[in-house]
Amino acid sequence: MLTTLLIIFVVGYIAISLEHPLKLDKTATALLLGMTMWVIYALGADTLVAAGAGDKFATYLSENPSLASESLHDKALSYILNVDIIEHLGDICQTILFLIGAMTIVELIDVHGGFRIITDRITTKRKVKLLWIIAFTTFFMSAILDNLTTTIVMIMLLRKLIANKKERWLYAATIIIAANSGGAWSPIGDVTTIMLWVGGNVTTNSLISYILLPSLVSMIVPVLIVARSLKGEITPMRNAVKEDSHISSGERNTIFFLGVSALLFVPVFKSITHLPPFIGMLFVLGALWVFTELFYNGKRLDKAREQRLPKVISRVDMPSILFFLGILMAVAVLQSTGVLSWLATMLDTHVHNVYIIDTLLGILSSIVDNVPLVAASMGMYPIADPTATGYAANFVVDGTFWELLSYCAGVGGSIMIIGSASGVIAMGLEKISFGWYLRNFSGLALLGYLCGIGVYILEKLIF
Predict the structure, then answer these.
(1) How far is CA 293 from CA 66, 261, 299, 308, in A?
(2) Mean pLDDT, rounded, for 154-162
(3) What is the DSSP secondary structure assignment for residue 438, as one 8-state letter?
């Protein structure tokens, strides 16, 4: 059964990676993969649960004496239904609810034109200056928002500034690198950092203190090299006529600042209340919902022109949410059956160096999706006791392994254009070819990635 699960997982993973050539949406594959693995897990419960759960299964049976007369299969199936599914779904739903809340707030800002407060202020025509402005703007925007939304906003800006398609590709590739680097040091900047933060593996202070500088270096190094090849000014584009809007500039800015402030408040909420982050996210979403209701009640617009929350929620990318659900449920089966623990033991035995392990995981994330990679890592290595010493100390909360994993999983996705959500969306919007990015930017992204790891190691040696 374990062999069957591994084969199905690998085949499903390959299908997800080859989404575009196969013309098969990765969400459909992920959902089918995740649910199929749970079906197989249930069918083989009598052997898989005993091998994977161990003492937890024995404890469950001792706490439920009514199962004593049942067959081994029924006992194991009861454990899956009442323990495994509930525990895994609880952890996964925390991440899913957090993402839904964050994506809704971002859509609320976007639908009211709030991001124009940033895009309208970028007016330079000098190529080098524009490159640095776009890089730093993307870097810090993706730390507050998510790298996918930031990439969309910045590429829409490029279309207003740069007419030449190949020239625009250069800036779009820079956006990919900056968005991934910017998301790696913020607890709300990337799905993988959200997973690690929600899971309690890292804290906000740790990410900012140790990952900000490496992430910044991973962006600056490639941009510095690209900037040396740029000269002159871009060809100005004619400004499009702005359409009248029922949302004034002041109202648009108010919604922008309220939305961004709400996102920034979530880590503060967690530190004050010690409640899971998704509660803070839904709390601020509820507050913004009340605000928008009062806002539109006062404007007295036609219903069709209003952008209340129920309408905004319909814009949230639900296929992405379902993709995360499917892939995380698939990884949960590997965790429950002991596959991830076995893999962790193999890495510890043959590599036994968290810097090398994280670096390899980051490079791997340039080929395959970083969400299941991080999910698998979290399943492979449980959080160690705070008093742990030696090698195990790398896996405590804010341990070296978790901090560097946050950096590597996010920044490593820039090495290939298909390695991150920002790369895939830029590829789709600008029709950037895989080969062009590989020739012109993969080497630069890899150099920046390795330089950032070097900076992190220096930080650990000094501090």
Answers:
(1) 52, 18, 10, 7
(2) 81
(3) I
Angstrom distance (rounded) from CA 310 to CA 312: 6
Beta carbons within 8 Å of 219's beta carbon, 6+ residues apart: 135, 139, 177, 178, 181, 182, 448
Q: Are 414 and 420 in contact (CB under 8 A)?
A: yes
Q: How does residue 368 score in pLDDT terms, banded at 50, 70 and 90?
A: low
Coil, strand, or helix at residue 398? coil
Nearest in space to 315 (alpha carbons), one of 159, 95, 149, 118: 149
| Residue 244 token pair | 């009248």
Contact 414, 366 (CB under 8 A): yes
CB neighbour class for 242 (10 Å; exposed up to 12, middle 13-18, buried from 19): exposed
Contact indicator for 448, 219 with CB cutoff of 8 Å: yes
DSSP secondary structure string, 252-269? HHHHHHHHHHHHHHHHHH
Q: What amino acid is encoded at 296 in this protein?
A: Y
Q: Which two tokens stand for residue 99?
A: 């993402």
Identify which of 326, 324, 258 has the alpha carbon closest to the alpha carbon of residue 295.
Answer: 258
Candidates 177, 159, 158, 56; CA nearest to 451 is 177
Residue given tokens 């806002």 in the structure block: 295
Nearest to 416 by CA among 359, 361, 368: 368
Q: Rounded distance, CA 371 to CA 26, Å?
A: 13
Q: For residue 343, how many C-alpha atoms fall within 13 Å in the half-sphere facing its CB?
A: 18
What are the φ/ψ torsions at residue 301 (nearest 5 degrees)? -95, 170
- CA diameter of the chain: 82
* 124-137 pLDDT tens trace: 888 999 999 999 99
Q: How far apart are CA 144 and CA 259, in angstroms?
A: 10
pLDDT at 19 over 80: no
First to last CA, the chain: 47
List C-alpha distances in Å: 394 to 104, 124, 353, 363, 401.
35, 46, 10, 20, 5
Instruction: Indicate the average pLDDT of the chain.
Output: 87
pTM over 0.90: no
Calpha distance 321→336 (Å, rounded): 22
Coil, helix or strand at residue 334:
helix
Whole-number Å distance between alpha carbons of 342 and 347 = 9
d(CA 154, CA 291): 27
